[in-house]
Amino acid sequence: MTGSRIDALAARLSPVLDAAGLRRDPAIDAHRSADATGIAGAVPPLVIRPRTTAEVSAALAACHALGQPVVVQGGLTGLAGGARPAEGEVALSLDRMAAIEPPDADAASILVEAGATLEAVQRRAEAAGLRVGVDIGARGSCTIGGNIATNAGGIRVLRYGMFRAQVAGLEVVLADGTVLSALAGLAKDNAGYDLKQLFIGSEGTLGVVTRARLHLHPAPGSDALALCAVPDLATAIALLRDLRARLGPSLSAFEAIWGGLYDAVQALDGGTPPLPSGAALYLLVEVQAGDAAAELEAALAGALEAGLVGDAVLGRTAREIAALWHLREGFNRHAARFGPAAGFDVSVRLDAMEAFVAAAAGRVRAADPDAVPYLFGHLGDGNLHYIVRTRAEAAVADAVYRSIAEVGGSISAEHGIGFDKKPYLGLSRSPAEIAVMRRLKAALDPKAILNRGRVFDA
Amino acid sequence: MTGSRIDALAARLSPVLDAAGLRRDPAIDAHRSADATGIAGAVPPLVIRPRTTAEVSAALAACHALGQPVVVQGGLTGLAGGARPAEGEVALSLDRMAAIEPPDADAASILVEAGATLEAVQRRAEAAGLRVGVDIGARGSCTIGGNIATNAGGIRVLRYGMFRAQVAGLEVVLADGTVLSALAGLAKDNAGYDLKQLFIGSEGTLGVVTRARLHLHPAPGSDALALCAVPDLATAIALLRDLRARLGPSLSAFEAIWGGLYDAVQALDGGTPPLPSGAALYLLVEVQAGDAAAELEAALAGALEAGLVGDAVLGRTAREIAALWHLREGFNRHAARFGPAAGFDVSVRLDAMEAFVAAAAGRVRAADPDAVPYLFGHLGDGNLHYIVRTRAEAAVADAVYRSIAEVGGSISAEHGIGFDKKPYLGLSRSPAEIAVMRRLKAALDPKAILNRGRVFDA
Q1: Which pLDDT does position A338 carry in this prediction?
Q2: What is the pTM of this model?
Q3: How do residues B99-110 score in pLDDT, each as one tens digit?
Q4: Is B151 on the interface with A (CB under 8 A)?
Q5: Strands A90-93 and A70-73
Q6: Pair A401, A363: CB distance under 8 Å
């Protein structure tokens, strides 16, 4: 049954696509069965690789007509299983649509195809003296289409916003092949509903991103980075508030590493740590401005006087700055050596963060007395990466998610829901909200062929 | 028929609402028939004035059950007829839901009810050393609910974004009374679709905003404002690009007044103009920064050296700054004395603006040889207020809108579509886009009771 539907689909699409555009060779495409979670999915029986929006439209129209489920794939760097194929799904890959137009310097924007990697777009922007507002670790593999579908975040959301804020114009293809193209990228446009908002962060369940116009930002004159030690979370939050008032938009990142993780990374890295161990939290404060080092130094001097910072070191040269950022990546570098772990990407209002951290620690300990939590993340955004070394993954997940729900936080700050966090969606969203998501899915993809079963059950 | 439905509705709601919450007195509510366009609508046979979200929900559930159309009203400052009642519509006014909670300084946000005026919220934010990102002329009467429903813009979009960018959390009531409440205001939250985006800028056709959490911004250390004269539009755009690179996020406004309007306003105002007449455009450049005057002066010196500015005056004191902003409001002050006019609020990509201005001028002249166009607006956002002194309003509208469509611009940058611009929506949106808007309307308001007939015909 499925086999004959795949035959019918291939027959319908072979006149539209070239030889490389339609592939039924598991030997070549086995890698498309898994994403960055490492969990194995099914190998798709057919991989569709269009070169143009018209080809995406033709492919989806055919799938829609046949009721054939489709998984949409970009760089396969997702952490929630959104692009991991389910049994019987054909894969629609944007890997052949990776063109990037020259940046438009007047409008400070750039028009790209969905399959372009974030890093390739960053390079083109930088060559024109401009910057993409979002940067994430997977930059070399993740694609703009995936960034938009998952509303990627990262380190400088504090200043530039999530990926949603970078999208000036968008072209998407709906499940039935309808093309919605709005790529002018007008800064102000209140002519009817802003449809692009619907597709950003909906994880490919409502439409397939084919092209986008992204806002670019002027390159800052300079960057500066400091590492500060603080005695507790309350002081860290007070420092954030103080620096925000002093630095305004020059404050571009405010990252936290909890003491336990800092010490563990130092033990693995060896050498002399930039600040002595023993503090409750270590904060990375980044400034982007005309004279960033001077602004950061003045702001920290003020914070020191206000009693909000104990010890601090300032990175001035590119090398010193890189060494401090290297610390921030400590967990990722050593993840394998931390042993079996359960990882969470949660978001909490700052005024509830202490309560959350205390409650989660208690529940995690109760679930597994041997568990060790390692915390770091984008404190300026209320976004914590909460990693627990444990073998009791399910009980620990329950402990962390229950603690998040209790304070009205989000079970997924950046990574999305996909398949893997779907069981917990109800902890962050009400039945009414999930019902409206279903209504929207039914309105735009009535046969539920696109990324079926991700986020919620349609 | 309509009368008996109103009776049935009143009977159903009178146990739920207090005496002031349900009013059938045209003598009191006659003013609710018109908005800021001055065009008279119908006097609503019943005005519903809830005090709580639960009351809004009960009112809409009753209207939905009876198939009773509802017009949603905030401050009645709209310029597209969105809140102007059609015959037979009951009015739902948010005027009794105007509470404002104390700002949350850690999260830099504020929780407000939809009926609060923008100005009242601005004052509360300022008292806490914070700022609302959006400011518009109607601040004293317009409400936050209306600002959200129309995605209001204004002068500092360049730095802070449209109203969409200010909304951290939203509570809305759907046509059937369903309450969607997501007021936590998390900076990062990718747990399912971001439903609030759907309601921002949809002009009350998909749901009624009852409460919102708004992002606030640190108050800038200081403001500075300069008036510059430039010889042509191309130089104005080159200056924008130059200043954006020099000033980064410190550049907070970049407004233009075309020479013809500058001269006309000077003639009406009398006195010595801040810069001599004769330039093609006059630009207001605002900087918000620690030492705004120094940053602005340095940036203008650089631009002068690059040959992008001829003459410029800098406002340093609050009084000098106010005098320059007073110029910008010149058209509005003198509007009545300009005689019969047709006004447009259009948006164009900067690289197409010269082509648009030339094409529109030609077509307007052909439509009415006596027409005089006056141009001003938010040039930094590509948003022009294009006003034409003419008696041939329909022919002139056709001329301007045709010219906008030709360059892929928007027929409504800030003001929305409402009833009044609905005939032109197809010039900025494709049939596929309008069809998707209809699908969304049908999914969320299947009986089309909310602001029926605004934006598009459901």
Answers
A1: 82
A2: 0.97
A3: 999 999 888 999
A4: yes
A5: parallel
A6: no
